[in-house]
């Protein structure tokens, strides 16, 4: 494998600029934003670093071959012709993920199957034996992307999605995805320079991601494994050097990060997850009803949260969102509050005008990340000063 090569960081809708900025900060070259992806170039060491450090990417792919195909037979022949024995042995295992946007090819599962057939047939014809499929921890995970008649074959260097950071053992019914949490925090401008509160913290994802951003801790430090560790050119010494160099950039944090939840089980789960992430010294979690809480001091407060959508509790949405607005207005002066919701009707009941609305997807749900500036003193006084 050459020194520098092209890579693709896959991400969520709207997060392309965040990934591009992260890549710039890490030192990537030739950064280009696409749709739900950002391409860049770097070497093997940078590939290790990108997997360790990117907060808002889901996968890091290493493109291998591109070709045009007009039928399933074309796909089979093109895949069969590639020298797979350079990358894996007959006793190794294989997994294939496919995404398809095409009128000719409509079933991604079928494309995966056809690709797998071509690779194992090549091995069988050459060595009289074939590799097996292992969907969880394969030696080689491939990504097939078909757009119209163009097929891109890439090696998946990440393996399991990068939102699986390795610190979560316990989740609630509707946990927020770690990549979405990191994206919300970065979109909100969170940089660790003030106190932080998640007043409805659930299993603690936003708190953990906020602490890692504040301290510049690589988000995927706790992961058990990356796919590239099973590649033939895996360089454990280089990976260790990269890990040491990114850990040297960890910084001190001089404020507080707090989480509240009314559910005792959520509080226990959040505390467990914070311990797993080795962040207990930075994060305090309390059983507390946000609606009965108030700001603890005069310092500026940065608040980001994901209000329940009614899964855990039967919620009267209009009344619930009105209480959010009332609590912010009455008890949280000097606060920048951000929250995400897919209930676009309920926003009207907050009783405050958001100063920003950012479109995001929480899973398949179209959502808005909303920003509310709560000023010191009443609005009236504030207006007179303006």
From TrEMBL:
<dbReference type="InterPro" id="IPR002052">
    <property type="entry name" value="DNA_methylase_N6_adenine_CS"/>
</dbReference>
<keyword id="KW-0694">RNA-binding</keyword>
<keyword id="KW-0808">Transferase</keyword>
<feature type="domain" description="THUMP">
    <location>
        <begin position="46"/>
        <end position="157"/>
    </location>
</feature>
<dbReference type="InterPro" id="IPR004114">
    <property type="entry name" value="THUMP_dom"/>
</dbReference>
<keyword id="KW-0489">Methyltransferase</keyword>
<dbReference type="InterPro" id="IPR054170">
    <property type="entry name" value="RlmL_1st"/>
</dbReference>
<dbReference type="Pfam" id="PF22020">
    <property type="entry name" value="RlmL_1st"/>
</dbReference>
<dbReference type="InterPro" id="IPR029063">
    <property type="entry name" value="SAM-dependent_MTases_sf"/>
</dbReference>
<dbReference type="InterPro" id="IPR000241">
    <property type="entry name" value="RlmKL-like_Mtase"/>
</dbReference>
<protein>
    <submittedName>
        <fullName>THUMP domain-containing protein</fullName>
    </submittedName>
</protein>
<dbReference type="Pfam" id="PF02926">
    <property type="entry name" value="THUMP"/>
</dbReference>
<dbReference type="Pfam" id="PF01170">
    <property type="entry name" value="UPF0020"/>
</dbReference>
<dbReference type="InterPro" id="IPR053943">
    <property type="entry name" value="RlmKL-like_Mtase_CS"/>
</dbReference>
């Amino acid at each position: 494998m050459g020194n520098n090569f092209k890579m693709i960081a896959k991400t969520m809708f709207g997060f392309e600029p965040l990934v591009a900025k992260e890549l710039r900060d890490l030192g990537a070259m030739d950064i280009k934003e696409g749709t739900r992806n950002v391409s860049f170039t770097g070497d093997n060491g940078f590939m290790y670093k990108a997997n360790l450090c990117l907060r808002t990417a889901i996968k890091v792919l290493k493109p291998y071959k591109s070709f045009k195909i007009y039928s399933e037979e074309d796909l089979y022949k093109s895949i069969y012709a590639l020298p797979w024995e350079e990358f894996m042995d007959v006793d190794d295992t294989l997994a294939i993920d496919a995404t398809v946007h095409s009128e000719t090819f409509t079933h991604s599962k079928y494309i995966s199957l056809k690709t797998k057939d071509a690779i194992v047939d090549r091995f069988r014809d050459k060595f009289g034996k074939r590799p097996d499929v292992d969907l969880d921890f394969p030696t080689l995970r491939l990504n097939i992307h078909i757009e119209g008649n163009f097929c891109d074959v890439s090696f998946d260097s990440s393996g399991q999605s990068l939102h699986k950071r390795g610190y979560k053992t316990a989740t609630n019914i509707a946990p927020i995805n770690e990549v979405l949490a990191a994206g919300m925090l970065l979109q909100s401008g969170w940089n660790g320079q003030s106190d932080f509160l998640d007043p409805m913290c659930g299993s603690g994802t936003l708190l953990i991601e906020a602490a890692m951003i504040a301290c510049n801790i690589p988000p995927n430090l706790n992961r058990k494994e990356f796919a590239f560790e099973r590649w033939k050119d895996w360089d454990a010494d280089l990976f260790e050097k990269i890990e040491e160099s990114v850990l040297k950039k960890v910084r001190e944090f001089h404020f507080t990060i707090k989480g509240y939840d009314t559910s005792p089980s959520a509080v226990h789960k959040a505390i467990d997850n914070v311990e797993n992430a080795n962040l207990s010294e930075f994060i305090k979690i309390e059983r507390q009803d946000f609606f009965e809480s108030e700001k603890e001091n005069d310092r500026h407060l940065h608040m980001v949260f994901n209000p329940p959508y009614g899964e855990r509790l039967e919620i009267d949405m209009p009344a619930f969102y009105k209480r959010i607005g009332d609590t912010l207005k009455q008890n949280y002066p000097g606060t920048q509050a951000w929250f995400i919701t897919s209930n676009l009707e309920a926003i009207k009941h907050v009783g405050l005008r958001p100063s920003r609305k950012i479109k995001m997807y929480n899973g398949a749900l179209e959502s808005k990340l909303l920003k509310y500036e709560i000023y010191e003193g009443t609005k009236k006084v504030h207006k007179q000063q303006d």
